[in-house]
Amino acid sequence: MKTTIFNALILLVCLSFQLQANAQKKGETNTFTLSAKKAASPILISEKEAKVVSIAANLYAGDVAKITEQQPEIIHDIPDSAPELIIAGTIGQNKIIDQLIADQKIDVSAITGKWESWSVQVLPKPFAGVKKALVIVGSDRRATAYGILELSRKMGVSAWEWWADVQPAKRQEITLNIETKTYGSPSVKYRGLFLNDEDWGLQPWAAKTFEPETGDIGPKTYAKIFELMLRLRANTVWPAMHGCTKAFYTIEGNAQTADDYAIVVGTSHCEPMLCNINAEWDHHTMGEWRYDNNAHAIRDLFEARTKATANFESIYTIGMRGEHDSPMNAKDLTREDQIKLLEKVIADQRAIMQEETGKDPKTLPQAFIPYKEVLDYYQSGLNVPEDATLMWTDDNYGYIRQLSTPEEQKRPGGGGIYYHASYWGRPHDYLWLSSTSPMLIWEEMFKAYQFNCHDLWILNCGDIKPLEYNIELFMDMAWDIDAFAGTMDVQLHLEDWLGSLFGAEKAPQLTKLMMDYYQLCFRRRPEFMAWSQTEPTTKPQETELAQIRYNDELTQRLRAWEQLSAEVKKLDDEIPAAQKDAFFELVYYPVTGASLMNQKWLYHYKNELAARQGRTSANEFTARSKAAYDQIKTETEYFNTKLQNGKWKNMMSMKPRNLPVFSQPSYAVPASDDEVGLGLALEGYEMEANKKIENNYADVLPVLNAYLKDSAFVDVFLKGEGEVEWKAEPKQPWIRLSADHGKLTTAAGEQEQRLWVSINWDLVPRGENTKEPPLGHDYQLIPPAYKVNGSVEFRSADTTITIGVSTFNPKFKELEDFEGFVEGNGYVSIHAENFSAQIQRSAGVNWQVWKGLGYSGAVVTCDAYQTEPITDPTKIKSGSPFLTYDFYTFNAGETDVRVQAVPTHPFYEGAGVRCAVAIDDAEPVIIDFKTVGRSNEWKQNVLKNAAVKSAKQVIAEPGKHQLKVWMVDPGVMLDQILIDLGGWKGSYAFPAETRKK
């Protein structure tokens, strides 16, 4: 009987261990107390571990102390007793971890030999005297450090705790639910930052504020940068390399600091073999930077740097360009000889690697960056070693130039991406604020991943600040691409990030605010608002935003920015004091700065128009523009001097490179004959109403359409200095005004008033009045038989002005149940995502709606990237997926179908960015959004984040029609469509949709 009971007990114990093992495999969750009221759980690491493990442990201990004021002890041996103990170590580097593995108390089979992978689990009674242990096991040194800092993430410490002054919430205890789990390996092997264009932020801040003892970006600054990277699970840096900064390896301590933090050092496309040519090449002592006649001196530099860094983790950029991002100095050689010379450069570089490191070059990370003329060499047959990573680039504005072909995707070296979120160069810099849409970053990097770019992602982040969220998104995508399957995942990621910083209750409102911010920046970046360019630098130009047409798109943009600015100020008042500084850096300053830049220039443009029309309000627009300029100075001064008691002094410049866009604009003064009077300005006209232009009078509003229920504006304004009382009287009962009387004065905000004219369509007759609009007014596209005309009379003490109101109010039976788009004033405007139907031709190849991109806030695209293009017109109709758009016209004849797309580039050399369009049963016409090099077309595209192409079509007769859009190349992102029958007058964006109401 005793034997039976003993056997049963043994069975129960074994079953218990088996259940524990099974539970661990299935993701068992256990609670673990990191810090109690009187003490924090110690963390045990080995003294033999790499320095980064000790760094991570100390960062973690500091994080706990910030939250609870209890500092965890860092120990190296098992204590005699401990209620709870953290044990962290790398396989083979920590004898206690190795003993747990040998005793089969932990299973590391899922991480052994893998890149940056770690496991976490809670063990009951792992050693005598220890009741519970949280065990973190890393496959390598970075994995162990990431595992330790994962605890900081879980207890609410932001990666931006130091860099954006994000204060973790205080509490007395920290208890976590720890899931038995394996983390990693990451989606992208090498993930990192390029510190670039540091002249106006990072370098002066480091040199004058943070590290004056070095007078440059030295080891103290890099330690803080590398801490941020560790917390973000980034592992690679391309150091700062502009002329204002000393070369990374020439400053003592930089290289060792990188190794201490386990950061892999690489260099940009113009810095071969870890050499900063811009700062290190001395013409006087070294000769020309030219390999065909000075190879010996160049090899000396390569050899010295490779020898000095042989014991550090590095990525060698192979190949060669000219000095500081210029073409290779070999213009007098033939193309064939240039290619041969570059092949010799690469062969010599690999021989140097072999000699100085003692390792086979095939085992050393290398990047070949086919950028600018080097891309031409590559496309012309340049032989690049198969083990080197092909690192593709964007066009400096966020659009990847090309990706690996199916054959290139098979290369052992794989693929990578160098991507810009900050840029100095033509057609215009964007160095000041974070203005690259997170959705665009997601789309381009997600696409790149599908083309086997899994080996190296580098983000040009400028000065780090204020690109915090773009950096966070980029690194999180590189770590786990599967968490970002669609655009909504980006929005959720942003909401989670903002919630972690400012509280879950504020997160939805903040997310919408930031999404609106990025949407407005996508339409035009703040740095582009003067319509000027650089390299060469031009003066500010006229805006493309329509002020007098399409409900005044300039003022619509202005109001949108002012609304965001007001919202962020209201939120700032509600943010707790402990979060104020972080809020200022991450939300308030970028949103407010962008809003003020728009206000500065948009009020300038309003001033110019108002002055031409003789409006007294021109002076008020001047004042508002000047106030915006002054406020930018005030906010920037606060950033540099008051924020965190001057911690960020010299970090933020409001005028990088002193480009014209950052200056105070010029202003116009309205012409005046000193007489006080009433003036009217009508939508559609440059000059004020009743002012004679040749033989015509600008006194009729745009035709209002019964099927669109649209409206038009009239500006009532003061001329001269004084007061004017006015009244407006509709002469027909069906005309409605947003106001019918008012008083104009010289006081701010009272110098003009905008009235909206709309129609009560239940009262207006149907096409009974066939009187033509005044001679010279270009609305002949509306059939006169369906027009009904009226008028509104405006009066002041000494002025009477009558304006015409034309309506289009027919009754067509076939439009009664119609749900598509209708012609208005000679055009049909459509948002591409609002298709009537889509026809799918093969499994997995169809159009999808992606939200958060484009002018309309959504695009349609075929994301089956590996699908072959369909370019044969005979096969497009029968084999390509297509969208249909139902629309109705009141006119017929030749029309221009204009399609706006996000300005992406072809996947491969020789490919296109194409779709095909046709109206009704016409043959498909292929349109291609592809641009050539740095052409003027490309410049305009990236300044607008839009590419527009058109195709001529014929509408045989008025009535119902259908536009079809076929896929030709996958990946094209369609944004807006304008079917122009001759009525569109030009605008920055296409006019508002003309959907039937």
Question: Can you offer a commentary on this structure?
Answer:
With about 1000 residues, the protein is an alpha/beta fold. It folds into 5 domains: about 30-185, Chitobiase, domain 2, CATH 3.30.379.10; about 190-485, Glycosyl hydrolase family 115 (TIM Barrel, Alpha-Beta Barrel); about 525-660, Methane Monooxygenase Hydroxylase, Chain G, domain 1 (Up-down Bundle); about 675-810, Immunoglobulins (Immunoglobulin-like, Sandwich), CATH 2.60.40; about 815-980, Jelly Rolls, CATH 2.60.120. The chain is about 30% helix and about 20% strand. The strands form 8 sheets. Strands 11-10-9-16-15-14-13-12 form an 8-stranded parallel sheet. A 6-stranded mixed sheet has the order 3-2-4-6-5-8. Strands 28, 30, 33, 35, 36 and 38 form a 6-stranded mixed sheet that branches. Strand 18 (about 690-695) and strand 19 (about 695) form a beta hairpin. Helix 6 (about 220-230) runs parallel beside helix 7, helix 15 packs across helix 16 and helix 16 (about 505-525) runs antiparallel to helix 17 (about 555-575). The protein is globular, with a radius of gyration of 33 Å. The termini are far apart. GO terms for molecular function: hydrolase activity.
Task: Report a brief summary of the structure.
By secondary structure, the protein is α/β, with parallel strands linked by helices.
Domain unit count: 5
- Helix and strand composition category: alpha/beta
Q: Could you list the spans in which at least 5 consecutive residues all have pLDDT below 50? A: 1-26, 692-698, 768-780
The fraction of residues assigned to DSSP E strands is 15-25%
Keywords: Hydrolase, Signal
Domain Gylcosyl hydrolase 115 C-terminal: 820-993
GO molecular function: hydrolase activity
Signal peptide: 1-23
